Amino acid sequence: MAQKHVINVDLADVWADKDRKNLLRTLAWGDEVAVIRQTSNHVEVSLATFHEALDGSVLPEATTGFITPNKSSGIKASDVVLPRNRNKVLKVNFVDVQQGDGSVIESPAGKVVLVDGGDNQLFARYLAGRFRGTTAARPQPVECILVTHGDADHFVGLPEILKSETHAEKRKRLFIAPKRVYHNGIVKRPSTRNKKSVPQKDLLGPTKKVGKDVFLVGLEDDLLAVADEEMNAPFRLWKKTLATYNERAEIKFRRLEFGAQDAFDFLADEDIRVDVLGPLVTEVSGTPALKFLGSPPKGPRIGHESLETSDLKSSGLSASHTINGHSIVFRLTYGGFSYLFSGDLNDEAGRFLTREHNKGALNLKAEVFKVPHHGSADFSGAFIQAVAPICSVVSSGDESARKEYIHPRATLMGALGKWSRVPEPLVFVTELVAFFTLEGWSKLTDDKKAEKRGDFFAFSRAAFGIVKTRTDGQRLLVYTDSANIKMKEVYAYALDESGVPQPASVLRA
Fold first, then answer.
1. Where are the domains of the chain?
2. How far apart are CA 274 and CA 276, in angstroms?
3. pTM, whole model, 2 decimals?
4. pLDDT tens-digit map of 88-140
5. CATH tag, 3-87+468-504
6. If you average pLDDT over residues 404-418, what whole number do you get?
7. CA atoms 170, 176, 181, 187: torsion sign
8. Measured between alpha carbons, how far is 463 from 41 in angstroms, rounded to an integer?
């Protein structure tokens, strides 16, 4: 019977034949594989390969193959795989969900944390493909769903997971059992009441004025306890989804703020530390509160003013900048490598956090940086300078003119390169690592739409834009897939004697 193992080298090519002929696919460090037998020259494995059907669908197919290390690599067949229970690799993937965010963290023991989920079905489809074979009786456990803030492009894709349970195609179904849901406590209210627009100040719940500042004082913990009429449509859908999951197994809800490290104690037994760095909460009359933020100065901005850490000269009250600026910011550390997740953090809030970093109250420095707000121009250069990333990931995508924000901005991309700690940093954009195949002139099958649209020049997605990272705390692997199975973009780093990451050779069997 095949035994579960994990790949123990950076990349392992799987061939149809023992003598390295007919490449089936390339597996990466930490990927699970069923080992049928091992010899001194090769490892025979059972795995899934992916084939394109006539309708364009990419379907998994069970097969067997051989990992036969190239003699010039110096890698022995005995070094290629490890038993699953000896896995030490943390996996963090950043998924292209178009205009939005969606990431998956998986601990060496298989504990899953979802961070945001986009606003369409892409995240759910990706998860269904990754965690195949779930059923109502055997759902995929999810230790935590963390929604960095309440913008639709960060969480409306999560109800698509529940919706997928009844999909006509089994391969697109995903059953999960979430144990915890973490959020920043801000619930968006309806934008109109009695057919009248709601003022900015009232879009995020109760407020209290202290001097010249306005504070949100109605922060929520249990989302199921919030009345439907106090939620906008996306929040009501999310609440309904959570209520269904909660009926199956009770969910622990929690509002996160700076210092809430104990929320991630479930990872401590694997030596994974999570520091919650934001939002920074203020007490107003004994109640936890978040400052209402304003609109930033109009751009475009070219200069060095973003390197300032003084208060930004914002104006008025802006609900959108407030909910973005108070995104949950957290730093995940495993051994000598750290990841910084920053939601849709903006310039004003970035300055708050950088001042605290400079005072030594918190640590923003990280090797892998999930760049805030899809590469928006509303960023703090001082914040990026404090992070000093080696690898930055921008989650953005083109969908429609309505969702066009010119992301990522040229100034932001330049700042990521400028303020990295290394001469040649890695800067990824999820939509750019996707691959589209030219199909040519096509016509819609819906007659009414075809009559309106006419023929159009089409492309199909051949590879999703996913930036994949792996680390055991001593080495870091960063790679992306290509539509060409023979090619991957891949980089490796290893800690030197001083604990400083240095470029390393990619180990490919």
1. 3-87+468-504, 90-433
2. 6
3. 0.95
4. 999 999 999 988 999 999 999 999 999 999 999 999 999 999 999 999 999 99
5. 2.30.30.40
6. 87
7. positive
8. 32
